[in-house]
Design a protein that fits this description.
Number of strands: 11
CATH class of one domain: Alpha Beta
Strand order of the largest sheet: 1-11-10-4-9-8-7
Strand content: 15-25%
Bound molecules: adenosine-5'-diphosphate, magnesium ion
CATH topology of one domain: Rossmann fold
Oligomer: single chain
Distance between the termini: 28 Å
Amino acid sequence: MTTHIQSRPAVLYGAQVSNLNVRFGSAHVLKDVTLAVPAGTVVGLVGESGSGKSTLGKTLVGINKASSGEVLIGGEDVTRLHGKRRRQMRREVQYIPQDPYSSLSPRRTTGQTLAEALDPHGANPVQHREAIAAALERVKLDPSAAEKYPHQFSGGQRQRIAIARALMLEPKLVIADEITSALDVSVQADIIRLLQGMRGTVDSAMLFISHNLAVVQQVCDEVVVMFQGRIVEQGPIESVYRDPQHDYTRKLLASVPGSPGFSLD
Ligand SMILES: Nc1ncnc2c1ncn2[C@@H]1O[C@H](COP(=O)(O)OP(=O)(O)O)[C@@H](O)[C@H]1O
Ligand SMILES: [Mg+2]
């Protein structure tokens, strides 16, 4: 693996993955993956389709099981948690999928969905009205959005609701898995601006998964490049984009307009 020089001080929270392996039967999908997602930073995870990005994201949330290795979140190894602590950790790590339509219940108003995130048993939108309004404001949605159902929103607005729901729990780690990929370019730009505006205001660590290096450059502090289940390069955005060390990174960058290696063929 190639690492660029980093001057960032060590952080206590966020996520630290060490020598993670994930196998599905005979398929060895993640191979000795080691990376850090420090609190308060957005780390981009790029790589072509099938390279293992979603598998990594889902392993961090506990949807996939690690075959070996360590996943520290807020200093705790989530691969070894059981019972109540394991259920609590489900709130502390939030996964936002590409299409939030599948994860937002069609029969619940936004207010009910957000109230349920705060309080799975009570789920009372009236009682949590202020928290819900604040969460909506954070993603630049009107408080009246609380009364509406998922089908009454555009794709970009639904993605904002999914972001609001993930952030309102003040999780230690947010995994955003291709959250702009299914959106029109102009709506993508809105979500990118929203995420840029949030930078520095959110204490959570964010792993921003994308196959689009131009988007990653706009949203992330650091980038991790995955190729066939391995991390081949990681470091601050500017240094990786300016001076990629791995052939695969150079190839990826050749498709980013404005990058040094950009070519139209
Ligand atoms: N639950 C699973 N069972 C078996 N194979 C899987 C499973 N999830 C992912 N894979 C395989 O792991 C590889 C990486 O997939 P994925 O993590 O979805 O890649 P990416 O998100 O980078 O496109 C693919 O070959 C995929 O078929
Ligand atoms: Mg994926």
